Amino acid sequence: MNITTAYEYLEIRFNVFIRVICSLAFIIFQVGRMGVVLFLPSIALNVVTGLDIFLCIGIMGVCSILYTMIGGIEAVVWTDAIQVIILLGGAIFAVIYISCSLPGGLGETIDIAVANGKFDLGATNFDLKDATMWTVIIAACFTHLTTYGTDQSMVQRYLTTSSMKEARKSVWTNAILTVPATLIFFFIGTALYAYYKVYPENLSISIPNGDAIFPWYIFTQLPVGIVGLLISGIFAAAMSTLSGSMNSAATAYIVDIYSRFFHKGEGGNELRAARMATCVIGIISLSFAFLMATWNIASLWDEFNKILGLILGSMGGLFMLGMLTKRANSGGAIIGIVASIIVQLFVARFQTFHLLLYTASGFISCFVIGYLASLFFKKK
Fold it and tell me: Is the Cβ–Cβ distance between 309 and 344 less than 8 Å?
C-alpha cells in the first residue's frame, strides 16, 4: 500500500478521525512504555554502581535520544542488530554461571525447579480470573497479534525491507528466535530461585522488590569484568526498545498528524520536525521515568500489561475489523472503539478477567461490537 505508518491504513479503510485517534493512542502508549523501559534497567545500574537512580535514567535516556535523532530508522535497525547479540550473550552467560554456582550444577538447578513447580505450566482448568495455562495462551495470542500487527514500532521494521518476501522472512526469523530467547530469559529467574534456595544468606533483605534481584546477584556474585557484560546486556535490551519506540512515535506524529494537517511541505522540513519530535517525545518519557522512580510499585511487569491491554486492546480488533470484514464501516468502527474502552474500564474496575487478558477483552469487544454497530449504518 506504500504507507509509512500502520495507521494510514485506517484512514484508507475507515476515515481520518480513526487514524488520528489510534495514532495518538499509540504515541501515548509509547511514552508510558519508554518510561518503564528507562526505569527498570536504572534499578540495575543503581544496585550495581550505587549511582543515583535519577542519574542512571538520565544517562540512558539522553544517549538513546541522541543516536535516534541522528540516525533515524537506520540507526534503530543496526543498533538493534548489535544489541540483541549482546543481550543474548549476557543472558546465556548468566544462566550458565548461576547454574554452575550450585554444588550440583545445572542438574541441581533443574531438580530444585521441578521440586518447587517452576516448570509447571499452570493449572489446566478454564479460569479466566487466574493465570492458568489457558489464560496465558489466550493472552499471548491476542497480545502478539496486536503488537506485531498494529504497533508502529514493530510494523516500521517490516516496512524497511525491500519486498514482501523479505518482510515475511523478517517476521519468521523473529518468531523462530523469540521462542529460545524467551526460554533463556525466564530460565534466568528459575536459576536465581534455585541459587537463593541453596544460599538464602546471600539475598539481602534490603532489596525493595523482585525487579532488583537479578541486579543484586550481578553486583554481589559475578567477577568484576563480567558485571560489565551483564549490565551492558540489560542496557542493550532497554536501548533497542527505546530507540524503536522514539522513532516510531515520532514517525506517527509526523506522518499521521503534522504532515496530514499542519505542514505539507518538503522532506527537509519534515526531517527537522521528526528530529524535534523524537527529542520532545524522549524528554517526556524521561520525565515519566523520573516520576515512576518516586512511586512504590510492586511489579512493573504487571503494570505494563495493564497499560498494554487498556490502551492498545481495541486497536487490534479495529485492524481485524477492517481487514476481515467488508461490512464494517467508520460509524461502526468508532462505536466499537468507544464500547471497547467502556468494556476495558469495567474489566479493570471489577477485575472480571486476569490482567493478562485485558488485550484480549479489548480486541474481541471492539471487533464484535464494531461489526454489529456497522449493520445500522448505510453500506458504502
Answer: yes
| Per-residue pLDDT, 219 | 81
Listed in sequence order, the residues at least 6 apart from 95 whose beta carbon sits closer than 8 Å to its beta carbon are 184, 187, 188, 191
Q: What is the pLDDT of residues 254-303, one digit of tens each?
A: 999 998 888 765 555 788 888 999 999 999 999 988 888 887 665 666 66
If one counts every other C-beta atom within 10 angstroms of the C-beta of residue 282, the result is 26
Calpha distance 352→361 (Å, rounded): 10
Distance CA 308, CA 312 (A): 6
Q: What is the pLDDT of residue 330?
A: 93
- Residue 268, classed as helix, strand or coil, is helix
- For residues 47 and 70, what is the distance between their CA atoms, to the nearest angstrom? 31
- Is 373 in contact with 331 (CB distance < 8 Å)? yes
- Please, are residues 350 and 362 in contact by the beta-carbon 8 Å criterion? no
| 153: its cell numbers | 514500532
DSSP H helical segments within the chain, as ranges? 8-13, 16-49, 53-100, 105-115, 133-150, 152-159, 164-198, 213-221, 224-253, 267-292, 300-324, 330-350, 358-374
Q: Which residue ranges of the chain lie beneath pLDDT 50? A: none
The pLDDT tens digits for 189-211 are 999 999 999 998 888 777 766 77
What is this structure's pTM? 0.82
